[in-house]
Design brief:
- The chain has about 230 residues and is an alpha+beta fold.
- The protein has a single domain, classed as Sandwich (Jelly Rolls), CATH 2.60.120.
- Helix content is about 15%, strand content about 30%.
- The chain has 3 helices and 11 strands.
- Strands 1-2-9-6-11-5-4-3 form an 8-stranded antiparallel sheet, with no helix packed on it. Strands 8-7-10 form a 3-stranded antiparallel sheet, with no helix packed on it.
């Protein structure tokens, strides 16, 4: 680990009644300017049906500056002892206007996978760019969606749609008819968070009018998924 790095500050939170782990690490890399430059130079493409914007490949090698810390967190907090691999690493840029969001993009979501799927979010901007919020689904009480819970969750979502109608054309923020806010992480430059992909969560977009297709001005983050056991 580079001796010029600032001391990383690590906080472990437990979400809601189920106690899903959320790890917040400040002053992670010491490389925000370089990462933003790399993000500005990247070539972006639409991210697909679920992410409301663009993505471009990002080299995860910079994580090596905190390799020992990440391995310790994966072992002690998430219980991953045997194997760990980075499956996806991308610069992510939220770009869609609220009225362009699909119904699925207007509500909290989970990243499909088992308990060994760990999501990493590295913020490159400040609080004005928006953090990440975590939720409980009111009808089921679920805070994490496991494969075993999917049938009940899917049925409950159909009930929600019948009772509440489609979600309004906006980015999710705070409590709604169907979801209860559990916790919210504020974005800070060089803040990194880790959580199980099964946790219900949503990006926080405080000012949709400020979204931009320009990585130098928009909500630029680095997102990764790790698979471990």
């Amino acid at each position: 680990m580079s001796t010029s790095l600032p001391q990383a500050r690590v906080e472990v939170r437990r979400l809601g009644r189920e106690g899903q782990p959320l790890v917040v690490i400040d002053d992670f890399s010491g490389q925000v300017a370089a990462l933003r430059e790399a993000g500005a130079a990247a070539r972006y493409a639409p991210a697909g049906a679920y992410y409301p914007g663009l993505r471009a490949p990002a080299d995860p090698a910079y994580l090596d500056v905190r390799r020992d810390l990440l391995v310790e967190v994966m072992h002690r907090v998430f219980g991953l002892q045997r194997s760990l691999r980075c499956e996806t690493s991308a610069f992510s840029l939220v770009t869609l206007a609220p009225d362009a969001l699909s119904p699925d993009q207007r509500v909290p979501h989970h990243d499909h996978g088992g308990p060994g799927l760990i999501a990493l979010m590295h913020y490159l901007g400040g609080a004005e760019s928006g953090g990440t919020a975590f939720y409980r689904h009111r009808r089921t009480g679920f805070e994490a969606i496991t494969p075993e819970r999917m049938p009940a969750f899917t049925a409950a979502l159909e009930q929600d749609a019948r009772e509440y109608g489609p979600p309004p054309p906006r980015y999710c923020r705070g409590d709604t008819d169907a979801y209860e806010l559990l916790d919210e992480v504020e974005a800070r430059p060089d803040r990194l968070i880790l959580y199980r992909g099964q946790a219900l969560h949503s990006g926080v977009i405080p000012d949709p009018a400020a979204l931009s297709h320009d990585p130098r001005r928009g909500r630029l983050t680095i997102n990764m998924f790790f698979q471990g056991s």
